[in-house]
Amino acid sequence: MKIHQFVAESLGDASYLLVSGTEAAVIDPQRDVAPFVKAANAHGATIRYVVETHVHNDYISGGRELAALGAEIVAPAESGLEFPHRQIADGGVLTVGDARVVAVKAPGHTYEHTAYLARDANGAVHGAFTGGALLMGAVGRTDLLGPDHTDQLTRLQWDTAQHLRALVPAPTDVLPTHGAGSFCSTTGADLGRCGPMATELQRNPALATATYQLFHDLHLGSTSPIPGYYRHMAPINRRGARVFGAPPRPAGLDVRGFGSLGADVYRVDVRARGDYATGHLPGTLEIEESDSMLAYFGWLIPFNAPIALVAYDRPQADRVTTDLFRIGYEDVRGYIAAGTIEPPVQLHTVGLAEAASMIRSRSVPVLDVRYAQEHRDIPLPGSRPTPFDEIQVWAQEIDPGPVLVVCASGQRSTMAASYLRRHGIEAIPLMDGGAADLLPLL
Fold first, then answer.
1. Per-residue DSSP letters for 198-211?
2. How many domains, in total, are found in the chain?
3. Residue 45 and residue 22: Cα distance in Å, rounded?
4. I need a labelling partner for 391 at 20 to 30 A (CA). Which of 66, 90, 138, 195 fits?
5. 188 falls in which pLDDT band (50, 70, 90)?
6. Which of 197, 215, 198 is nearest to 206 (CA)?
7. 280 with 370, same domain?
8. Which domain holds residue 73?
9. Given 204, 239, 274, which residue is the final one in a domain?
């Protein structure tokens, strides 16, 4: 039995390929399925099953893409999928070559959530596919279904962890779907993508905390925002996403073609923010390619709105288009290579010293676009808390400016400034540095 992990850094998620003999199964596949098919072919194996741990809130499953190639989709019995699939209940078994994949009901991240144990012919557990149940040093969020469900799901998540404690041997690897960078995780800490149960017994709050109440308070003690596109994912995954066969590729555009796109097309510059500041096309949003890029797209651009990219080159445009495809933004009209932009517009930015001086003198309003939890952890005197994830709301209340925009590092402040300037507000970002850097200067 061989298990391969595939990490989508832009989502903070992992998919898995289990191969035994001439058969394979893919667990929690991303929508771009070519890497799984290629790896299975390299082993001389056919992908027989797609195995879902839960109905995903953070990306569109590649299950339908693999089903079109002949795989059977297997999902928890309570998933409510509206297309052909095999339901699996607690204790259900799938045969993959000489391996057995055993379903373990594991509610908490969602109600239907199921984990899977990969057992060999002798019954030994070689890996535990835990989805959003046990992560590395964390567990999956229990607040994604709304406050009416949070306490119940948190209790279920605790109970699931205790159940898995008894089923997964200490040396066996825990193989989660969500990890660092995923907004489905309760921590942003990078503690690896997989590791032995023994390590989790020592550090995972759901396993190492003495009582449920202590776990509850720790688990829900800090909050992170929910990306705007999340509310679209589960309905699409239940209904069944459109099958493309391969991720779309954006057309290459020249200056005339880029300029002739309709007013409804969002023009997005995905280069590094420093290059955007040096020169960009008027009216373009700045969303630099990064591990958090997709969440920012979801907060700044309506779901599946038409998009055109400003990128360094074709490879970057293809990468970003594939990432957007993973979350249902399927209408990328094309891209323009940055080297063809003439004449560019520059973005006025400030450094730490100038930003601190502006705050001390109260010469302009200061917008702090960090998330609400960051505001509570490290308040910035003299600023107005304006969480980035709520920008569509509070931006309507901002006067024409000028305004200073700050965040934690400069990434969100530059994006927010580009959004505000697109709406007629003279926004000046602190592009390199953030609130913690400013405090000693105030």
1. HHHHHH-HHHHSSS
2. 3
3. 4
4. 138
5. low
6. 215
7. no
8. 2-239
9. 239
How many CB atoms are located within 10 Å of the residue 318 CB?
18
pLDDT (tens digit, 9 = 90+) per residue, 85-109?
999 999 999 999 999 999 999 999 9
Q: Taking the alpha carbons of 184, 187, 189, 195 in that order, is the dihedral positive or negative?
A: negative
The continuous run of DSSP H or E covering 285 comes out as strand 285-286
- Number of Cβ atoms within 10 Å of the Cβ of 83: 12
Which single residue is written with the structure tokens 């990064």? 290
End-to-end CA distance of the chain: 59
As a whole number, the mean pLDDT across the chain is: 95
- Domain match, 175 and 141 both: yes
- What residues are paired with 116 via a beta bridge? 103, 129
pTM of the model: 0.94
Q: DSSP characters for 180-193?
A: TT-TTBS------S
Identify whether residues 210 and 90 lie together within a single domain: yes
**Two structure tokens written together for 31:** 């929508």
- Domain containing residue 277: CATH number: 3.40.250.10
Residues 83 and 140 in one domain: yes
Establish whether the linkage from the previous residue to 171 is cis, with ω within 30° of 0.
Answer: no
User: What does the alpha-carbon distance between residue 86 and residue 352 come to, in Å, rounded to a whole number?
Assistant: 57
Degrees, nearest 5: CA angle 52-8-238: 35
Calpha distance 306→333 (Å, rounded):
7
Residue 250 lies in a domain: no
Enclosing H/E stretch for 311: strand 307-311
CA 259 – CA 244 distance, rounded (Å): 28
pLDDT cut 70: percent of the chain above it = 99
In a shared domain, residues 231 and 301: no
Dist. CA 59–CA 135, nearest whole Å: 17
In-domain check, residue 248: no
The answer to whether residue 244 sits within a structural domain is no
Contact 288, 276 (CB under 8 A): yes
One domain for residues 126 and 182: yes
376, 400 contact by CB (below 8 A) = no
Q: How confident is the model at residue 237 (pLDDT cuts 50, 70, 90)?
A: very high
Whole-angstrom Cα distance, residue 227 to residue 381? 27
User: Is the same domain home to 191 and 84?
Assistant: yes
Q: Are residues 11 and 157 in the same domain?
A: yes
pLDDT in tens, 35-87: 999 999 999 999 999 999 999 999 999 999 999 999 999 999 999 999 999 99
pLDDT tens digits along 295-345: 999 999 999 999 999 999 999 999 999 999 999 999 999 999 988 877 789
